[in-house]
Design brief:
The protein is mainly β and 58 residues long. The chain has one domain. The protein has one helix and four strands. A four-stranded antiparallel beta sheet has the order 1-2-3-4, with no helix packed on it. Strand 3 and strand 4 form a beta hairpin. The chain is globular, with a radius of gyration of 12 Å.
């Protein structure tokens, strides 16, 4: 399932439910969102795991 999620699906930068970023032959993925009063962002490396997660109160 992970391979499917990180395989470009609609565009080169969109996987199955995630956005894909390639930098220097490294693959990162993530997704962000917001709700009333909050925003969040998750970024991770395909092979090394979690890179960063942030929740902000607006």
């Amino acid at each position: 399932m992970t391979t499917k999620m990180l395989t470009p699906f609609v565009e080169d930068f969109i996987g199955l439910g995630l956005f894909i970023n390639k930098m220097n032959d490294e693959v990162y993925f993530g997704h962000g969102g917001w709700n009333e009063g909050y925003s969040n962002e998750l970024k991770a490396h395909r092979d090394k795991g979690l890179w960063g997660s942030c929740v902000n109160q607006l």
